[in-house]
Amino acid sequence: MQRTIGALRETFFDLLILGGGITGGGVALDGVLRGFRVGLIDKGDFASGTSSASSKLIHGGLRYLEHGGFHLVYEALHERRLLLENAAHLVHPLRFIIPFYKDSRVPTWKYRAGLTLYDLLAGPSNLRRSRPLRFPHLRREFSGLRSVGLHGGACYVDAQMDDARLCLEVVHTAALHGACVANYVEAIGFEQRGGEITGVRAVDRVSGAEFSIRARQIVNATGPWLDTVCRLAGDHTGPHLRPTKGIHVIAPDRGLTSAFLLLHPTDGRVFFVIPWLGKTLIGTTDTHWEQGPDALMVADLDVEYTLAGYNHYFAPPLERSDILNSFAGLRPLIRTRSGEPSSLSREFQLFWSPSGLLSVAGGKYTTYRRMAEVVTDAAVRRFGRGRRSRTRNFRLHGAPGEAWGKFEPGAVSALCSRHGLDEKSARHLVGRYGQCARDVAAYFERDRTLAQPVLLGEPDLRAEFPYQRDHEMAIYPADHLLRRTRLGLFRPELARVG
Ligand SMILES: Cc1cc2nc3c(=O)[nH]c(=O)nc-3n(C[C@H](O)[C@H](O)[C@H](O)COP(=O)(O)OP(=O)(O)OC[C@H]3O[C@@H](n4cnc5c(N)ncnc54)[C@H](O)[C@@H]3O)c2cc1C
């Protein structure tokens, strides 16, 4: 994947997409696979917005059933199945535990009914049927779980991903099929003729150069920045969004063999405790955020709330000093008249500006493929020629052609025997790069020290950095540390130096 500024200047695109998060990446892939000339730019790095700050779940969203979001859950559960095949190296099943407490806001019967409905909505896409767990089982497997008031529980299976890398693989796949993609290129204005948008003014944030990009259709997929970009295009009909902030706290591994779905003791909101990349992720919050996406930050109160939730259920408690880091993301939710953030819809919507700009807002990571299909359908209806979307069964870059359970052991042992890697390192490379793990390992031939870990105690290998520079458009240290690896997230002092 190369940064093709020259081609961005020279090509007349069918589709130019602003925003290289999962939504924009998805539209780029859908468009290019239909045979369109596609351009994609992001003002920062790909996935540098919300798409690297999610809870990392590919899920139907059990909690949306409480608000009657059956259609959303159904669609997401089916997209989950597709992603487990199309991005098998990055999306994996994960067991969730729901402990039942006597004083819970949600009664046990409601959980049971919800889980049965979840199983039914998944139908043939179900990963495993949910099942009840008895109190002694919970005590045995999770000795740190609060037992006062606990009388049983249930488990079900959803899926987990590496969000930033999944977004990168979507953009990478689009680029491999001919999309012209560039990070650090910002849309700063629009060019219009006869009231119709014909292109954008863009600035390359690496060189400082300004230039125009011309396109028949421009798609605004800038997530939380959607209203800013609409206004830039002269559309003042908004705001369309009511963004809410969600934070996560990262703690060292708490030894959990499963994720937990829990209710916060102060307000009864759902939050998760999730094992992720050898660490424990706790979150999330859901509060209105009016200050704009560029000012987003984690507040002390957010961290306190999150720790209070964890410490209500688990011992030993987590202190602030135990925390490795925290991060915030902004949900680009559609503005409705309803009040509470948690009840704001996770559905998505398209908006046409009078000048022809097509904007897409809302949605979930899990359903990005379906969103992209609908956006591209809407764009091509204007062109009058419409090929059908091909993304349903399309493997992403790095994804193996066979089932993960078959592919992974062979790929790991090939890396061990060919490159003398230990099993842990080989498993790490295969888990992150899938089929392309061998391309990362090829760097060992040039310099054997590249087979060593970057940091003691973390699985990331030195060869990943030159590979990311050469093949994944990493430009700045933060691109390597925060999105292509997560070292900077787990060791924030590194990212600050970067
Ligand atoms: C806390 C939290 C947890 C979540 N957890 C989950 C989950 O577990 N599962 C799930 O399915 N969904 C989850 N979501 C939802 C999901 O993460 C988002 O719906 C999704 O990431 C939004 O992606 P996006 O591409 O629309 O926006 P973004 O990822 O924010 O992308 C927008 C991009 O536009 C770029 N941009 C902005 N302005 C310009 C410009 N002028 N020119 C060029 N580029 C520009 C930005 O740099 C940015 O990269 C979560 C969301 C949050 C906040």
Using brief descriptors, characterize the structure shown:
alpha+beta, 34% helix, binds flavin-adenine dinucleotide, 10-stranded mixed sheet
Fold topology:
Blueprint: H1 5-10, E1 12-18, H2 22-33, E2 38-41, E3 57-58, H3 70-86, E4 91-101, H4 108-122, E5 131-133, H5 135-141, E6 150-161, H6 163-176, E7 180-182, E8 185-193, E9 196-204, E10 210-220, H7 226-232, E11 244-252, E12 259-263, E13 270-276, E14 279-283, E15 287-288, H8 300-313, E16 325-331, E17 348-352, E18 358-362, H9 368-383, H10 404-419, H11 423-433, H12 437-441, H13 443-446, H14 464-471, H15 477-484, H16 487-490, H17 492-497
Parallel strand pairs: 1-2, 1-10, 2-7, 4-12, 10-18
Antiparallel strand pairs: 3-6, 4-6, 5-6, 8-9, 9-10, 11-14, 11-15, 11-16, 12-13, 13-14, 17-18
Helix pairs in contact: 2-6, 2-9, 10-11
Bound molecules: flavin-adenine dinucleotide.
The site of flavin-adenine dinucleotide has 38 residues, from α2, β8 and β16.
Descriptive notes:
- With 498 residues, the chain is of the alpha+beta class.
- It has helices at 5-10, 22-33, 70-86, 108-122, 135-141, 163-176, 226-232, 300-313, 368-383, 404-419, 423-433, 437-441, 443-446, 464-471, 477-484, 487-490, 492-497; strands spanning 12-18, 38-41, 57-58, 91-101, 131-133, 150-161, 180-182, 185-193, 196-204, 210-220, 244-252, 259-263, 270-276, 279-283, 287-288, 325-331, 348-352, 358-362.
- Strands 3, 4, 5, 6, 11, 12, 13, 14, 15 and 16 form a ten-stranded mixed beta sheet that branches. Strands 1, 2, 7, 8, 9, 10, 17 and 18 form an eight-stranded mixed beta sheet that branches.
- It is globular and about 70 Å long.
- The structure holds flavin-adenine dinucleotide.
- Residues 18-24, 41-44, 48-51, 53-57, 186-187, 221-225, 229, 246, 284, 329-332, 363-366 line the site of flavin-adenine dinucleotide.
